[in-house]
Amino acid sequence: MKIKFTTKYSEKIENRLLHYSIEDLSFDTEPNVSRIDLSLILNKLNLTVVDNKIVQIWGFCGNARTVKTTKDVPSYFKGTLMIEHSLQYGISYGIYNNEVPVYFNDKSGWVCLGNIDSTGEAVEFITNCVAVVNDEKLDALWLKPKWE
Questions:
Q1: Which residues pair with 8 in a beta bridge?
Q2: Planar angle of CA 53, 56, 61, nearest 5 degrees
Q3: What is the tally of structural domains in the chain?
Q4: Hey, CA dihedral for 53, 99, 28, 132, is it positive or negative?
Q5: DSSP characters for the chain?
Q6: Is it the case that residue 56 has pLDDT exceeding 90?
Q7: Does residue 40 contact residue 93 with C-beta atoms inside 8 Å?
Q8: Residue 97 belongs to what domain range?
Q9: pLDDT per residue over 65-90, tens digit each?
């Protein structure tokens, strides 16, 4: 299974609100997307794919505020996070074989899943959701939810 991540910079992003439920230990975006082509799984988070674009994030992330860091989201541009694939529609696929580390900057409110030191191409593809793509791989996912 080969998934290639690419970024496309533009002023148009998915205008959704990212929430984190402290009670449920989970992320969600609203408004919800009802049409789903397939899902990519990062740890236990679902990244919804429609027309080869990541358009929604939701799912369990119990350790979102446990590993503290002073590092912050890298510089980024607005745009689209796209994938190239030959995956079957209607199925969920894990991006990695193992879970990636999760970090939390309690001063800025950003959560990072993955390589906190990544210096790849950074794109804000959903409001307050930044992906860092390095060598066609999703190297880091930075999320700044509304904490509830």
A1: 80
A2: 130
A3: 1
A4: negative
A5: ---EEEEEE-S--B--EEEEETTTTEEEEESPP---SEEEEETTEEEEEETTEEEEEEEE-TTTTTSB-S--PPP-EEEEEEEE--PPTT-EEESSSSPPPEEE-TTT--EEEE-TT--SEEEEEETTEEEEEETTEEEEEEE-PEE-
A6: yes
A7: yes
A8: 4-144
A9: 889 999 999 999 999 999 999 899 99
